[in-house]
Amino acid sequence: MDRGKIENSLHREIEQLRKSIETLASFPDIDLAELYVAKKCAARILGVCYRTLERWYNSGYIDCIRIGGRVYFPKKELLRIAQLYEQGISTLSGQNRPQTLSELYAKHQHRAGRKI
Fold first, then answer.
1. What is the pLDDT of residues 72-95, one digit of tens each?
2. Same domain, 54 and 100
3. Which of 17, 41, 42, 68 is the most buried (most CB within 10 A)?
4. 99: closest CA among 61, 64, 51, 63?
5. CA-closest candidate to residue 75, choices 31, 33, 29, 30
């Protein structure tokens, strides 16, 4: 290749890159809190069965959106629930229903014959 062809090729590539950068700059900022996760993926993230998630959103414990026949969970909701478990505020019962520690304590005190 001669010098002129190389320069033309470089100018074309530079122009394409400039257009790509302008296009990317025109996109609105993406708010990571508004990302949504599919049901099975959300279940894996939280370490529960997807049926557990179904029970949770049917009971109103977790927010979700429906698009067509699919259910998606906001990432911020998954983080909220993960933080509850991490802080020990909530745990799973035998029916995979979230319970607060005070509910568990009351249940175990009742079994021991003590009433709170």
1. 998 888 888 877 776 665 655 445
2. yes
3. 42
4. 61
5. 33
Max CA distance (Å), the chain = 94
Question: Which amino acid type is present at position 21?
Answer: I
Integer-rounded Cα Rg, in Å, for the chain is: 26
**What is the predicted pLDDT for the residue at 94?**
46
60-80 in b/e form (b: 16+ CB < 10 A) is eebebeeeeeebbbbbebbee
For the question of whether the overall pTM of this predicted structure is more than 0.85, the answer is no
In a domain, 107, yes or no: yes
3-state helix, strand, coil in the chain (%, to 5): 60, 15, 25
CATH number at residue 86: 1.10.1660
